[in-house]
Structures are given as structure tokens and as C-alpha cells.
Design goal:
The chain has 255 residues and is of the alpha/beta class. 52% of the residues lie in helices and 22% in strands. β2 and β3 form a beta hairpin.
Length: 255
């Protein structure tokens, strides 16, 4: 089994942050609703007695705040479902890599690095004697249409619905690989072969993209391609160890 060097994903941290925010919003909502009810009741009574509307206005303001916070909590719940789906997909890829590859392979998940003022986030990075494998995962459903050189692609989520514009993952993974190459050069660890893959997590996703120099695959074919790639080892064990040690430092420094 491959060695998993980092398991916690930014999606996991995002889910935790969403859960904390949602809990806080629910507590604030209860206070705001209670305050709005009290202010409105007192305001109506005061208006009936003395004709003043100050408390009514404050009650309306409290009600508006509670409505905004309720909408935010609902948005958090929708976003949490999306993040959860992405997390399941990334976990699937990690588990497949771990099961299909032997202990000479090291798997880094959610690797964030910075070169100068530019930063990049790599969903999965496999390191072995045959080089480095950069994997960009997309939890997109429906039909994906695009060109490898375009800035954006189109996602048709449901038949009859207008398409949604999404960033071109081929360009994303190429940018990540280039940043990785520059970082390796800065550390004196290059050159090393860097291979790039884009993985679509949903089995129901269809991809309509002209021939690309970056393979566009689903999880199982991607893992199989990495496991069976017929490339002779090009890195010495000492080079692999140095790469892994540096990436571990990068991982710890990003926390």
C-alpha cells in the first residue's frame, strides 16, 4: 500500500469552519428572533399609548437581521452538502491510490505551496522513482464541454438548463505542475519528471473536450494509469527521499 503523507483536506477544514459558523448563526438567530418579538410587541403597545414608533422600528431592524442570518445559515447548509460531496470524492481518490500503489509511492493530499507571491493548491501528489504525479480533481456532474486552451469551459448540469462557466482544469493542473517545477528548482531538487492528470469524480460526468495533452479520467482509470505507467525509474532512492522530506516540510509549514 502507498504511504499516505497527509490526509486532512482543506475541504475538511472548510466543513469544520462552516459548522462553527452555522452553530453561531443559530444561537444569534434565537436571540434576534426573541428580541424582535419583544420589541415589536412593546412597540405596538407604545405606539397605541403614545404614538411613538421607535420600538417598532427597532423590532423591524432585529427581524431583518434575523432574516439575513437565516439566509446565511441556509446557504451554509447548501455549501456544506457541496463540500461533503467533494470530500467524499477526494477521499475515494486517496483510498484508491493507497490500495493500488505499493510502499515505494508517497501520496500527499491537499498540498499547498508558494513560489514568490504566487500560490497553488494540489489536490493529490504522488511521488515515486518514476517522478511526480499531479492530480486535479473535479466534483462536477453533467456534461462538460470545452477546449484545452480556453480559460473557461461550460458545464451543462441538467438538460434544458443554461450552461455554467467553470475554470479550465487542464490549465489549472498545468499551472500547478509548473509551480511545482519552479519550487523544485529553487530547492535544488530538480529536474524531475512531472506528470499531470485531471480526474472527474462523478461516474455520470461526460467530458466533451478535444484531444488534450493532459489525460481527463475518472478515478479508477487514473489510478490504474499511474500504477501501470511503463516508465523506467529515473530518480534514485536518495532523490525520492529528499523530495518527500521537502514536501513534508511544505505540508507542515502550510498548516
Amino acid at each position: 500500500m502507498a504511504r499516505i503523507m497527509s490526509e486532512e483536506s482543506s475541504l475538511t477544514r472548510k466543513r469544520l469552519a462552516l459548522a462553527r459558523e452555522t452553530r453561531t448563526l443559530h444561537w444569534v438567530l434565537r436571540v434576534e428572533v426573541a428580541l424582535a418579538v419583544v420589541l415589536l410587541a412593546a412597540g405596538v403597545l407604545r405606539y397605541w399609548l403614545v404614538g411613538k414608533v421607535t420600538l417598532v422600528a427597532l423590532g423591524v431592524a432585529a427581524a431583518l437581521f434575523s432574516g439575513a442570518h437565516w439566509l446565511r445559515a441556509r446557504q451554509n447548509r447548501r455549501e456544506d452538502r457541496i463540500v461533503e460531496a467533494g470530500l467524499r470524492g477526494e477521499t475515494e481518490v486517496m483510498q484508491r491510490l493507497q490500495a493500488a500503489l505499493d510502499q515505494s509511492h508517497y501520496v500527499f493530499n491537499d498540498l499547498r505551496m508558494k513560489v514568490g507571491r504566487t500560490s497553488a493548491q494540489i489536490d493529490h501528489l504522488v511521488v515515486c522513482a518514476r517522478g511526480l504525479f499531479v492530480i486535479e480533481t473535479k466534483n462536477w456532474r453533467g456534461r462538460i464541454v470545452g477546449d484545452p486552451t480556453a480559460d473557461q469551459w461550460q458545464q451543462f448540469r441538467m438538460p434544458g438548463q443554461p450552461p455554467v462557466r467553470v475554470h479550465n482544469p487542464v490549465r489549472q493542473v498545468k499551472r500547478q505542475a509548473e509551480m511545482l517545477r519552479l519550487a523544485l528548482e529553487q530547492q535544488g531538487l530538480g529536474p524531475a519528471p512531472i506528470h499531470r492528470y485531471v480526474v472527474f469524480l462523478s461516474p455520470n460526468t461526460s467530458v466533451e473536450v478535444p484531444v488534450s495533452d493532459v489525460p481527463l479520467l475518472h478515478p479508477a482509470p487514473c489510478v490504474e494509469a499511474i500504477a501501470q505507467q511503463s516508465i523506467e525509474p529515473v530518480l534514485h532512492p536518495e532523490q525520492v527521499d529528499a523530495l518527500v522530506a521537502w514536501l513534508v516540510r511544505v505540508t507542515k509549514g502550510a498548516r
